[in-house]
Fold this protein.
Amino acid sequence: MTGPHLDGTRTPRIDRRARLITAASQLFSERAYDEVTTTEIASRAGVAYGLIAHHFTNKRGLYLATIRAAGEALQTLQETPPDGETPAERLRNAISRHIAYMDRHAAGFLTLLRGGIGSDPEVRAIIEDLRWQGALRILDALGVDQPVHPVLRASMRGWVGYLDELIVDHIHHHDIPREDLVRLTISALTATLRTAWSITPDIGIAPATVDLLGA
């Protein structure tokens, strides 16, 4: 089914659903969940208010849809192999690409982070899984076997949080060149891995392997 648009054309239903997700992502990134109303989401999307119930049941359903959409887009990016001949080059390119993507899709990224602060268990599960899968891709590339050692697991979760906050600062200020952000990120990662190894040498990754990341 299609509906009329202001210029007399017909707008596909999927476009209106996507508009709602885009508008909701923007508003949820600007203000807390409880401060955003479905009325203003529909208004910003330029669609009928009733379409929220039709597509998502309620505001929580729409909120979950924005989280999933942002997560799926990020997962697609992460699964695309980065360019580079060496581990260091691939890591630099992957992180640079990640930061650039988040900068271009700031609303979706900030919605993801805001969702992670909430107490909704379904939202929290989506966020936690997405962040851990990103950390696992790095560990897999370094040849770390699963299950991941608890010290290494905790270290990587902390590093992912560092990266997220670095990107948030970049989105808000844009006063540090991306290449410097990449250097900060890699330095933090290598320092984190070396410290984890110094605490527990059997974490499954040797200092020589870590050294390759900063080469």
Observations:
- The radius of gyration is 20 Å.
- The chain is about 75% helix and 5% strand.
- Residues 63-213 form a domain with the Tetracycline Repressor; domain 2 fold (CATH 1.10.357.10).
- Residues 31 and 95 are 28 Å apart (CA to CA).
